[in-house]
Amino acid sequence: MAPVSRPSPDLRLHELLDELGFSGANEARARQELEQAGLTRPGKQRIAAHKRERVQRLLQERFLLVCSRSSCQQEARTLLDAGDGRQLLCAERPGDCALCSGSGNRQAVDRMCALLGQHGLQRLVVLGGSPNAREALRALVGDRIELRLIDGTERRTQAEARADLRWADLVVIWGGTELDHKVSSLYSHGAERPVLTIARRGIAALADGLREHLERAGPAR
User: Fold this and answer.
1) Does position 192 have pLDDT exceeding 80, yes or no?
2) In Å, how far are 11, 19, 32, 61, 80 from 50, measured between CA atoms?
3) Distance between CA atoms of 57 and 213, rounded to whole angstroms?
4) Measured between alpha carbons, how far is 16 from 40 in angstroms, rounded to an integer?
């Protein structure tokens, strides 16, 4: 006997919109857009589950949710001035921001990776940082560039350091973090190419320092 197919369950429209970042006053604006597109009707409280992707795609195409962070506001204005075409809405919660997701770290790393790509730099060695900071940095970078994150407190041989230096397009010493001078000196002394030192804690500080270095170096060749 063939199995009976059951229709996919409905979703609470309020909960779906809240999940997609359209809370508070933005919920009414999102509902209006969905009604105009024929995806729901006025007064309906539920929506078919199979419409979820269409709802998400439509709202992402129509609106740009941005938090009050000055850098996000500036980036949003740049996008709109360039003809982005979406309507700007003020995100009710920092985590709903389409540009930083509430994380200064994420935004800083995104900009760093973009600039590294513009300069043709794909292999980055970072020496130092706590285990949690290294793990978070790797997750934020993803597969956009190749990373070697070196524990600055563990013993490192000169041969290993030289192999890292040969492999890397850029080496950064993350100063002000968990870092043994004996380890950092293997990278900073006698290197064939400049090694950048960023003596500021935090992922955003590291990413911003690297980006500022590349911007001072001039346009990509």
Assistant:
1) no
2) 9, 16, 20, 19, 31
3) 37
4) 13
